[in-house]
Amino acid sequence: MASGMDDRTTRVLRHIVEDYIATAEPVGSRTISKKMGQSLSPATIRNIMADLEEAGFLAQPHTSAGRIPTGAGFRYYIDHLLARQALARGEMDQLHRAAGEGNGPADELVRQVSRLLSNLAHQASVVVVSSPEQQVLSSVSLMRAGVERILLVTVMRGGWVQHRLIEGEPDLTGDDLEKISAYLNELAEGRTLLQLRARILDELGKEKARYDRVMGRALVMSARALTEAAPGEVFIEGRANILEQPEFAEDVHRLKRILRAFEEKSVIFRLLDRAMVSRAIQVSVGLENTVEELPDISVVASGYRQGASSVGSIGLIGPVRMDYSRVIPLVEYAASLLTTMFEDR
Amino acid sequence: MASGMDDRTTRVLRHIVEDYIATAEPVGSRTISKKMGQSLSPATIRNIMADLEEAGFLAQPHTSAGRIPTGAGFRYYIDHLLARQALARGEMDQLHRAAGEGNGPADELVRQVSRLLSNLAHQASVVVVSSPEQQVLSSVSLMRAGVERILLVTVMRGGWVQHRLIEGEPDLTGDDLEKISAYLNELAEGRTLLQLRARILDELGKEKARYDRVMGRALVMSARALTEAAPGEVFIEGRANILEQPEFAEDVHRLKRILRAFEEKSVIFRLLDRAMVSRAIQVSVGLENTVEELPDISVVASGYRQGASSVGSIGLIGPVRMDYSRVIPLVEYAASLLTTMFEDR
DNA sequence: GTTAGCACTCCGGCAATGAGAGTGCTAAAG
DNA sequence: CTTTAGCACTCTCATTGCCGGAGTGCTAAC
User: Fold this and answer.
1) What pLDDT does residue B1 have?
2) What fold does the segment set B89-130+232-343 form as a domain?
3) Nearest to B315 by CA among B130, B107, B114
4) CATH number, domain A2-81
5) What is the pLDDT of residues A181-232, one digit of tens each?
6) Degrees (nearest 5) of the Cα angle B338, B266, B276?
7) Where are the domains of chain A?
8) Considering only CB atoms, which chain A residues are within 8 Å of B260?
9) Do A153 and B161 touch (CB under 8 A)?
10) pLDDT digits (tens, 9 = 90+) for B198-253
């Protein structure tokens, strides 16, 4: 089907999509005829449009409005017709600078980049950080946090910090904690969180005798704390930008749906997890995303890596009518920027 | 002026405000007459309304609409006429449960409570946590975070965790870090962040000889890292709830302004900082808040404490037309809940 | 296969209209 | 002196009807 379209037909489709992206209005045959240098008359364009509509790429809001691209139309455009716009030098610089400012812990870096991406694209920007269980540890520490609580802090290579509370254990002294921390660090050397946990339990079985009861119990508790799946994190920036898009600004219902979605980590995760595993940029249009509540939005996202493993993804969320030619390079660049930033950490 | 209003007049004002809160529509003399059991005719009410308008408590959108309370009208209502609604047993329970679930680090606790508060009130909820410099430390730890970075983790009594990156210092070994951590913990005992910093510098001057150059430098860097003002934190929950309010749902401009404001920590801080110092609940109506960009919103907020010192505040942000009789007790209860939760930590 | 021409459809804007809600004023009643 | 009934007046809002414009589909000619 799709392959059975001749060059002229696809050119018409491309112009329709691009015009619609630019104006958010249904586009008519006259407009396209002009745009193509009048080499074809409006009547001819109309015939072609009728074909495209039959093929499912276009739709009419009502008789005698122009056509607007359907989801399938956008899909075809993105897959076959898109001419990427090169990033402006200035935009690259800005992104670099944003990344540079994020010299605090990793979350600051990510937040800055996300924020700028959002503003450059005039869309809401989202970053998800996968649960760091698969990441390699840099160091571990047990800290006192009140009489009845101990805090287990883990720092990953790349700069992500996590902490989990352990309840109880009031009788461990500061000295005890230091000792256990030192020991945990030894075990952690070069390992992931998961591996560390296994290792702790392992060691504990082997050399039970070496530890007094209190310390032994503390080790078990550490292992248990490490088991609790840390959910991963979500950063959303530029929510206000979605009001720049008429499709959301006008329709309070859609707006509410999307704002609610932004408040549910799990939804955002489902929205971006495909991009995480894949290496290439992912564009899901309208119904394609797996979140039933949001049938009318698009997600452009790309994973970023830490060394060889994918650790998260960054992307934009907006209406189906997005300026993909501009937005796709932006997201790609942002993702690669994160990848390089995390490389030398 | 205000004191010069007789009982009947204020009763009319109260009814107008309450009706307007309930309906979001201008209210007319007929409605009020009915509401007051027809003891007064609409004509009389009209006279009273005219007086109230002259006094600045009411306004007319146009001739021959009903009256709407002005900012001053709301103010008077809140200060003198408000009949607080008792919290429902169920709501208190829910809040308690939310607080109980937040058994992770302090930020989880705060987030859960804030979220529920937001949903109960149908408004956006905001929590600010003041920069914890004045809070007493529970423990300190230096951790390796990559070759060129060290992470300084501080845990406050009450469970707030902060981390700051220190760049450089590649030659400190894990052992070194442990030793310095132990020493810092000794110095930190029972002190605030600020005091700790002073103490470090102090000690360093006195006993310079006791430390080798590397460790000395590390201490200096720690002190410096502690100096960087940590900005405090802001949590916003239930943004989508503001769309429940017709005044925002209809006016995209206001909506955008408020969403933008939510993206600027500093704005939120300015909005809530008054509540932080004061012990009582604060209600600022319309123009009263100090943020010029948001002249048409109300903030209901209350500080919460950790022991004797104020450490932050929790509140609601919404249109001036809020159900104060319900919302004020909610916020108060949430704040007191946070205070008790932090007490036994 | 392409295009000009034409009849037709549908939306959006505009003015006119009328009902409804509410006011302010006046004059009478308490 | 206060309250109220009555009434004229104002303003909004929803409804209606009426173009004009944009765009289409079809047919017939090129």
Assistant:
1) 45
2) Beta-Lactamase (3.30.450)
3) B114
4) 1.10.10.10
5) 998 999 998 999 989 998 888 887 776 656 677 777 778 888 888 887 777 8
6) 35
7) 2-81, 89-130+232-343, 134-227
8) 240
9) yes
10) 888 888 777 665 667 777 777 888 888 888 777 789 999 999 999 999 999 988 99
